[in-house]
Write a structure and sequence with these properties.
Order of helices and strands: EHEHHHHEHEHEEHEHEH
Helix content: 40-55%
Radius of gyration: 18 Å
Strand order of the largest sheet: 2-1-3-8-7-4-5-6
Shape: globular
Mean pLDDT: 96
Largest sheet: 8 strands, parallel
């Protein structure tokens, strides 16, 4: 059984002047519903405002929650912040936190939204309103659920907002593997950044992950991984510059899951980026990531049960 966090408000109506594929989250939900009893659904609540204000400026939080974000900030975000968008933004960070709590109890859980890694303290950016990864990581440390959290960001774009918001937080580290020449133009400093040249293929990508993430895991020994599982490294992604195949994305999830499983580290995944004209195909790539991760943890748990019998 795969624990999945979803809320109806994740599926918001597309605001005007938006190029973001707003139907993606609904398609992800429908594809997971088709899995039947394999999925164990969990409903998040709106994120307490004080949680949001631990990483975001209180003034910006109020602008979003009251749907009065200035036009210049909406331009950075990429769409208007309507009341429906504001409701969605207020729930997603709690969804990532809930997925993390479920992962701590069961090994793995997924949020069907989130991975909003470009959102900064005083503004959103790059289709990101609130930074759910940063909010969840800080909250988990403050609640003393864990002492060490690692954010592993495999989106094709650097996790600049996550890096900036979490810099200096004791017990939290950030890892970003991304296309060097892609958005954002001005990169932040993650704990470890792995900037790849254009056109890196499956083998090159996996080799880079192996040579950089493995030593970081072994040095930090995190008690939880928050995983930004963006599928935009895919070769045909509209906003990507890398060349992973569907098989390469599957190998990536198996590799990430294997690293966590062999080190007994719970993992919570978020959706992250995936862009193009075919929203159904994009949703299928996101769902494949969730199912591959979830199956790896389920298989590992089954093996452990058999060995203990």
């Amino acid at each position: 059984m795969i624990r999945v966090v979803h809320h109806p408000d994740y599926v918001a109506a597309a605001p005007a002047r938006s190029t973001y594929r707003w139907n993606k989250n609904g398609l992800i939900r429908d594809l997971l519903l088709a899995q039947g009893e394999r999925i164990d659904w969990h409903l998040p609540e709106p994120t307490p405002q004080v949680w949001l204000e631990t990483v975001h400026d209180a003034g910006y939080v109020a602008e979003v929650l009251e749907a009065r974000v200035p036009r210049e900030k909406e331009r950075r975000i990429g769409f208007p912040v309507t009341p429906a968008v504001a409701r969605r933004a207020a729930i997603v960070p709690n969804g990532t936190w809930l997925a993390a709590c479920l992962a701590l109890d069961h090994g793995f859980a997924a949020n069907t939204a989130g991975g909003s890694h470009h959102a900064l303290a005083t503004t959103g950016a790059g289709y990101c309103v609130f930074n759910d990864l940063a909010v969840a990581a800080v909250r988990l440390i403050e609640e003393r659920r864990v002492e060490r959290v690692l954010v592993v960001d495999c989106d094709v774009h650097q996790g600049d907002g996550t890096a900036a918001l979490l810099a200096g937080h004791v017990g939290i580290a950030t890892y970003s593997i991304h296309a060097a020449r892609n958005f954002p133009v001005r990169k932040a400093c993650s704990t470890l950044d792995v900037a790849l040249p254009d056109g890196v293929d499956d083998d090159g990508y996996l080799a880079a992950l192996d040579s950089t993430l493995v030593p970081m895991l072994d040095e930090m020994q995190p008690e939880l991984i928050l995983y930004q599982a963006g599928v935009d490294p895919f070769v045909d992604d509209r906003l990507g510059r890398l060349a992973l195949t569907l098989g390469g994305l599957e190998r990536r999830e198996q590799f990430i899951a294997g690293l966590a499983i062999t080190r007994c580290i719970p993992l919570a995944s978020t959706v992250g980026g995936g862009y193009g004209d075919d929203a159904q195909a994009i949703a299928e790539r996101h769902v494949a990531a969730i199912l591959t991760l979830g199956q790896a943890f389920a298989d590992a748990a089954g093996t452990q049960t058999r060995l203990s019998a």
